[in-house]
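[Solved] Which block belongs to which protein?

Original post:
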Amino acid sequence: MSASTDGMPPPEGFDGKAFVASLSNAPGVYRMLAADGAVLYVGKAASLRKRVANYFSASPKPTRIMAMLAQVAAMEVTVTRNEVEALLLENQLIKSLKPRYNVMLRDDKSYPYVLLTQEDWPRLAFHRGARGIPGRYFGPYPSASTVRETLNVMHKLFRLRSCEDSVFRNRSRPCLQYQIGRCSAPCVGLVSGPDYAASVHRVALFLDGRSDELTDELNAAMERASAGLEFEEAARLRDLVASIRGLQARQYVDGRVADLDVLACAMQGSSACVLLLAFRDGRNLGTRAFFPRTSGSEDPAEVLSAFVSQYYAEQPPPREIVLDRAIDDAALLEQALSQTAGRRVQVRASVRGERASYVDLARRNAAAALASRIDSQSAQAARLEALRALLELGEAPQRIECFDISHTMGEATVASCVVFGPEGPVRSQYRRYNIAGVAPGDDYAAMHQALTRRFRRAAEQGGVLPDLLLIDGGAGQVAQARAVLGELGIGGVTLVGVAKGEARRAGHEALLLPDGRELRPGPDAPGLQLVQQVRDEAHRFAITGHRGRRQKARTVSRLEDIAGIGPRRRGSLLRHFGGLGGLKAASAEQIAQVEGINAALAGRIYASLHGLDAAD
């Protein structure tokens, strides 16, 4: 890429036509900036001069574009070598800058994968989250159920282990998975290393979508077994080939093994749903619905184009992408995706036969998913309005935060903060606070610390504040919240306590208002139902964090209490046995095999973990 060109507005405003005159016809990316420096829009262009000139011509434009242009105070451009580079840079900038007027893919859910670990005896398992475990990750899959279905098939066909390392290292006899024919029991040596490695290789071929190559290998192995008079092995391989062929036969598309995604976009006003129907190696992996932020756009082709560009910048594309409508950038996207994938990727909008039936299926599912979401949003809006009326607020709250405290007899205290907006939970803004330096069980001090940590930063740095702050607790907890807000000089936040009802019955909670009033709207009140949803989510988030912190603390403290166990030996033990559970399942002799642990120390560790005297 070459140099950047910045356009600064004259004192009376931004002169778009003068800026266009300074541009070349080279491909590149342009950025529109507001007066405060915020990025309004990022776009790509085959010719920067022609594309930017369109914005400042006299031709009529959509209301959304006119509203954006009215805010432009400056523009910046970056020249690229070709259109593909411009497309890739545009994706990077949209992801990092989150411009106000771009159509953006919003997807805060992590994708599920099939994980094949990199070990002497690899494990085949479900995985979601950061890919920090060494091994191969196959996917992503549209849904967790698809991953589990795939694993079910893989374990039946190839019999790789699924157990955690802590279990695998400490078994003395085969488990139930071996008994039902879903594992070859490498834990107790019932399968040889070469045979297990062959199964690992075959699993990788299958999950890579190379099942034709796999069946060729299996047929060759079957012939060798038959020639060597190993008829039982030959029969097993024959059945395995038949099973794989059977899986393929169920999911052929137009007579070919499918490796494609089908995408359809449904819109109602500026609300959009893009539905993904995925096939890999002939297997239907199911559907997943996405709801991009349209920023006021009502053009489904624009939304679909932005989705394809942004989604496949993060996920590996299949060999074929079938769309329910034509998009302007299809040829460019095809070129860019082929370049990044290292093989040809087709982007098609006009199809026949079975592919056309899948496009129709995707369209109908997209429309149904969008209608369901709009109904859900309408219900959420109605509950927000009911809550506004219940609390006698001037307008419905746009940001609700709720705090809760969780601990077990004062141990491992954790405070949670969950955030709800007009569309429901905003999980990316949830926060947990590990409470320290307060007396065990002092919930008032814990709440005071958590609220101080949350709102001090907002007070000092001008951060976002909630319209409604819910406190899970009675008058004492609410008093702590009122004190914190007063100490930090924060106003404009409506504070409400959520006290448990009689006999702790759901729906009978009391709402403690700032003026001292107490409301008991009853279980049928939509406003209280929304409060319950937010409070329950805060409780779930707090107790999950507390349990994790408590388990970690107990794991560390049990080992730290043993004389002779420092951080290095503790780490070696937990790594060797895969955690405290694996260590507890080990014998003293097995513990003594860990580097740095002698027999005497192993005996003390075993005794301590099992509540025995070291002399026993």
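(Second protein starts here: sequence line, then its structure tokens.)
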Amino acid sequence: MLRLKKCLIVLVAFCALLLLLAGCTAKVSEKTENKGETENKTLAVGLAQFPGNLDPADQYNGWYVVKFGVGETLVKIGKDMKIEPWLAETWKKVDDLTWQIKIRDNVIFHNGTKVTGEAVKASLERTVAMNKRASQLLDIASIEVNGNEITVKNNHPNPSFIPALADPFAVIVDVDAARTMGEEFAEKPVATGPFKIKGYAKDVEVVVEKNDNYWGSKPKLDEVVFKFIPDSNTRVMALQAGEIQVADNIPAESVEAIIKTGAYQILSGSSLRTHMLIFNVTKPGLDDVNVRKAINMAINREDLANKVMKESAIPAVGPFPLVLPFGGNELEGYAYQPEEAKKLLDAAGWKPGSDGVRRKNDRKLEFSVLCYKNRPELPVLLEAIQAELKEIGVKINIINVENIGEALKKDFDATIYSLNTAPYGDPQYFLETVFKTGAASNFGKYSNPRLDLLTDKLKTTFNVQERNTIAKEAQQIVLNDAAFAFLVYPKSLLAMSNKVEGIELSPSEFYMLNPDVTVRP
């Protein structure tokens, strides 16, 4: 009997153990299942450049606000560089001065306020008041509102008005919130995108979180951290260490090593960007057009594109990349002719000195060139150019700066610079903002009356072929004046984990984070 009781006790204990294990298993399964449902999907991105603040109307900060998935414009640029609807549903040209634009009626700002025609009007007026480029490119005389439709009148005929609305300076924001928030708005703008700002640390990181009230398809990611990592090697190491899953502007020499790991993919595509030298044409020496032409002739663009940049760029001819219909195939650029460059300097009175540096009236042909490391190829390109110019008796001193935007507001001799030349596929943007007398980004104080006339003519010319012809004539004037040295047209290079999906390169460089971007487990 005692033996039977012991057996029963053991049997009961065994059954209890089975029930306990079953319960634990159920709890573990339930926990795992719930975790799969509630675990946040996050992404970390390393960027070479960062905004000064997050107010899209301030300078070029809007480019980042759009890239971060926070801001949206009325129209956007598609993969084929054609204009597509975004916050605007439709638009039409009423006459040469008037445009009617219908706004979507299901859009709300991040703070829950509905986007109306009045809100769009206020946002565009704020942008024009704050941003010199916007004032030039939009040229708005007045805006009238009728419900969710706005009627915009230009001061002059403006064929590129609708494409200019795709520029991120025209991100639609809640102006009432901007007034109420004051300086805080520049750190947490209230816009309409699929993501909204969660945190901002200047020159460190920007954290965005999904906008549950987004008008379009719902974001697949819960949170994205954009980290400012200006050094290219540090950015690549952060990618390989798993600290970030996406790295932009990676150096060409790192591509092979990244691909070999098998854990990453490289996105490469044509950009609309040009790397160039900008000369301050008011500086002694650089105010001599023959000096500027000689410098152009001493630069081996084939070597810069194929050797220095390891075939990740195309030798430049003029301001615009050759892929554009108004690009430089038919232009007369500068071939590599160092001996002819020397003859040109001799004829201009710049004679070699005992130290190899040319002189004229006791003035050395020596100047400083600003450089920044956010684009890793720029310092390497400039070092190669420094060696080439030394061969013709021109000495340049390289000055590395942390913030090129701030440096260009001060006095300088020359700079190496990279610009997106036609972000919405039209020549007027670059000609208007960089080359026209007194333009917002005319850092080198270049001026040519004929060029100014051609740029103004673009504003009244709606025929595409005529616009391309005008643009080519304008470019040839810039080349003849040699106020710039156009170096190469770089390709875009972005590295990301094989687990990342939904990111696509855009020639305009405006877009990165969108609702479809996600990370596989």
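Accepted answer:
You had them paired correctly. Confirming on the second one: DSSP finds 16 helices and 23 strands in the chain.
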